[in-house]
Amino acid sequence: MSDFPHLEKSKPKAADHQYDDDEVTTLVNGTSDPSHLVYIPGTSNLSPDNRTLVEGQEGSSKSNGLTVRQKKHINTSVQQLHYNENKISLDRCINSTIELLYALSEENKARPVFYPTEIDDDNSLLLNSARAHLALVRQNTSKFDKAKIKPDEDEEPLPEFKVLRLNLKSGHSDFDVVSNLDKGSIAALLEKKIQQQVKYLLNLKDRVDDTSSKVFVTGDLNSGKSTFCNALLRRKILPEDQQPCTSVFCEVIDASKENNSLEEVHAIPIGGPDYNIRDESTYKIYPLKDLEDLVYECDRYSLLKVYVLDHRSFQESLLHNGIIDIKLIDAPGLNMDSYQTTQVFSRQEEIDLIVFVVSAENHFTLSAKEFIAAAASEKRYVFIVVNRFDNIRDKEKCKNRILDQIKNLSPDTYKNAREFVHFVSASDIPIGQPSDDGPGGGDDDDGPAEHDLGHPDFDILEASLRKFILEKRSISKLLPAKSFLVNILRDLQTLSNLNEKIYQQEKLEKLKELNNRVNPRYNEIVSKSVKIQNSINTLIENTCTDIYNATTQQITEVVENLGEKPVVVYGGLQYLFEYAKETHSALFDVVLESVTKCENNTKDITVTKVDEIIKFGQNTLGEEFLNDKTFQSSLMFTRKKDTLLKRLDYQLDIMDFVDPSLESCLTFLGIPEKVVAGIQHQITYFNPLTILTAVPTNAIALRDQIPSQITLHTLYSSGKLLTTGALIHKVYQFSRYVTPGMLKKVALPVVLGLSGISIYYLITDVPHAVVRKQARRIKSQVKKANYAHLNAMRIANECRTVLNYPCRQVMNNFQTNIDKRIGEKQKLETSIKDAELSYGYFHDLLKKVEYQQGLLKEIDLESVHEVD
């Protein structure tokens, strides 16, 4: 008996009238009588109860001048029109979604997309807090070490991903590997997932455009899948056994449409070219009787295309229905081995409808639950066939337990359990045997027993399956595609919402960090660097200027004082030339010695200034700055000092030994050197040029100079002047007594005496004359060569070079810190820019996704479009 109480038994009606009156509205005396679905034994159909009374005739009602057949034909055309429109709209949505995925892939390559994961802690809490997400972005990781993140009270939990879900399990445990990967690894997994979904969408588009429908029969190992397929075909085509036998995918196809009505098996080799029925090199042909052996050849063949004939009427046959091409795929069991299980999972993208066969004795295994959960991402409805139900004693308990499992696995299937969940025993369905005697498939006695009417549950299953595929084609063919698009767009919406919020918050956080921490530190160290550099440069320049001035002054004074006294011992006239040479070298040595003294003084000053610069660095950069290095001043001025001896001309002549002068003459006459110096000073003081320059230009200047001019020294000088005048007056008076005769008598002796005295004076003055002559020559040449300036510049530059070393060390350390701050600043600015770009991208992506969701929502697949 049927387990569906709303179905009523009625007398069988002719097969050709089963669907003619599907849309009849019955009017009896102005009242409407609701129609009922009627199970007709032996016909595998659900038929409306068309018992009507219209003018005493049955099945001839009219509505608006149209017969029921005409109205149904029009409704079929209208439905086909809407089907085509919906198919075109779905194609557009698929193409648009593929473009969105491609764009997401490019974004993920440029800037890894954040993907939420679960952390492995005591509670395995979902990281659905925006604050936790932001922390993960900062740490470039997907988890916190021993951190328990709880969702904020004002935040809604994230919806679970259905299509873009990343699932990596470690071995046989439930340990989630994804939650322990860093952001880059998760981005790589997401990239792979996106590419898989693009491929899936391309196959989905091909499936939507395909006019045929593929029914995928799968289930757990040894659940009776092949038996169920044979029951649908009412022929024993696929091998059956108590042990698992099907290990190769078998695709059962109507031979009357695709293989010239020839029943045979086309075996497609593994790794061979794509199957082409017109190219026999792409497959091998076997008779149907070899199918029982071929299903074990999983190491040779990837697919067996089984072409069969079904001679039942269009109303009875699912494969040969006269409306659309249906291909029935028998899959290996899920628990046969991991490779076959993976293959079963991967075939979902090629199929329109899943018929999952589960044993009533074993219920759903773990693989079955995973398969149905994966199928739910695309297919809203899954036919669940609970096989071997007759072997169960407590049938209600079994039903309730299975329905409870289906409720969690596929909620929509559970809501429509009367149509999609069926409890049957496929092995009890009478079937015929395949035969090679002809296209008839065997003798009449091998076909199903027409008188056997005791399998209403299976008939209802077959009728529901037929109606879902043929009459609700928009749901069976297009709804899975729409459901998948809805799920993937929802995932994209979730991902966009999440990343938009995260990157917006990350941008604000990075800007806050840049403005409050990094920029102030950067500006502070740059300002400090400029101040320290200016201070050190000022110190260096002042030091070098002082050294230059001191060196110039000292060398100039030494050169000006050359020749004041002999510098070597005079050995006599016989050593006169040696004395002149030694005097010349000694005068040079005096000048060079002055340069050496300036260098030594500069060394001492440099040591002090180096310590000051190091103190600058230690005060700003830390005590460890250059504390492991010591300045050695002895290494300064190790290069050749100067080339004065090469540049100055030295030529000795006879005049270098004669240099009469008033000072030397007075000294020769025995006048003390102090008196000679005083006389020389008076002569210089009363020089007319000096007197003219010293005359005051106005009364005020004269008043200012009077106190300073009237001194004892002035009075003394004036007295000496008066004494000298008196002496000259006496000489003048004495000249009266000098007569020409007297002069003649004393002239010769006086001349001879004066000549002798002069010669003696010149001979005795030779050592002093050589010194004076050499000194004047050296002074002239030194002044002409600008010797003092050049040496002062050399010594100052050497000091500057030495002081620049610790200065560079200080500034290099500052620059290192500045570069570090610049790198930190640039990194933050790059992060801010990336956050802006990512935020803009996901903001636009969210709009595009919402637009596609609106278009997808307008595609109405479940409403029935009819003409009244």
What would you say this structure looks like, in words?
- The chain contains 23 helices and 16 strands.
- The longest helix has 88 residues, at 473-560.
- By secondary structure, the chain is of the alpha/beta class.
- Helices cover 54% and strands 8% of the residues.
- Strand 2 and strand 3 (31-32) form a beta hairpin.
- Residues 428-437 have a biased composition (Low complexity).
- Its main location: mitochondrion.
- InterPro entries: Dynamin_N, G_DYNAMIN_dom, Mitofusin_fam, P-loop_NTPase.
Topology:
Layout: E1 8-9, E2 27-28, E3 31-32, E4 37-40, E5 45-48, E6 62-63, E7 66-67, H1 68-110, H2 130-139, H3 183-209, E8 213-219, H4 225-233, E9 249-254, H5 255-258, E10 264-269, E11 284-286, H6 291-294, E12 301-308, E13 326-330, H7 338-346, E14 353-359, H8 366-375, E15 383-387, H9 395-409, H10 411-415, H11 417-420, E16 421-423, H12 456-471, H13 473-560, H14 576-621, H15 644-647, H16 662-668, H17 673-685, H18 688-694, H19 699-709, H20 712-734, H21 740-764, H22 766-785, H23 787-858
Parallel strand pairs: 1-4, 8-13, 8-14, 9-12, 14-15, 15-16
Antiparallel strand pairs: 2-3, 4-5, 6-7, 9-13, 10-11, 10-12
Helix pairs in contact: 1-3, 1-13, 1-23, 2-13, 12-13, 13-14, 13-23, 14-22, 14-23
Keywords: Coiled coil, GTP-binding, Hydrolase, Membrane, Mitochondrion, Mitochondrion outer membrane, Nucleotide-binding, Transmembrane, Transmembrane helix
Region (Disordered): 1-20, 41-69, 428-453
Membrane topology: Multi-pass membrane protein
